[in-house]
Amino acid sequence: MAERRRRFGAAVAVGLAAGVCAGAAGCSGGGAAAEDGRAADPVETLHRAADALREAGTSKARTSMEMATGGTRVTIRGEGVYDYRRQLGELKVLLPQDPSGAVEHRPITELLAPGALFMKNRGAGVPDDKWVRVETATLSDGNLVTGGATDPFAAAEVLRGARTATYVGRTEVAGTAVRHYRGVADLAVAAADASAGSRGSLRAAAKGFATARVPFDVYLDDAGRIRKVRHRFSFVNGRQTEAVAVASTTLLYDFGAAVDVRLPAARDIYAGRIAED
Description:
globular; outer membrane lipoprotein receptor (LolB), chain A
């Protein structure tokens, strides 16, 4: 059973991240001077970004995951809510249409939890009323890419591994004044400093990605909360030998929003055979 789940986890990564295209066949500096004390030590500021989200409690989130494969660029989009104290979230993830436009995919409901990803409407022979549960520590990318959306709190915890970072300057995200930072994180370092709920997944990603180095751009508001973060991952999806570059963007807004995420009961989790995509 465990081996079958691991194989399915790899299949999900291909199906959500790269398989949708099957039919189509270092730290950069920015150079702005620090404007105030908060910008004086970018690395320490970014190490605290996940803690600032936990203090905020909850928010709404939008995600996008862009990749190019087979000569075609696709984007997977998600939208939902997240509870940072409980590390629970719910996203509706929308796959792009097939290149011909003939197939329109139903939104996939994803529940994000410490160490687990639950999916409904995944397909692959799973009944419509059942959930699939995947242990994220068994996935080669730790679910930073597999689900077609990066877990918002995991995205913040990646920044705990920031080794170098530069303060670029002030700007706005969706009308909110923010500070822009750019740098490179190390997934192995992030895993060592992450919360217990994220540690196993980040360790898996550090070992499974083509490189543990993750370039990023992040925008923090005056409370130190992430408003936008963009990571650039590199992974091998199992169907090809060359690494695939993936850009994952997470937007956080409406902090303090009502969030009520309930994980499925054991009877609602599919335990049968899962078809390969």
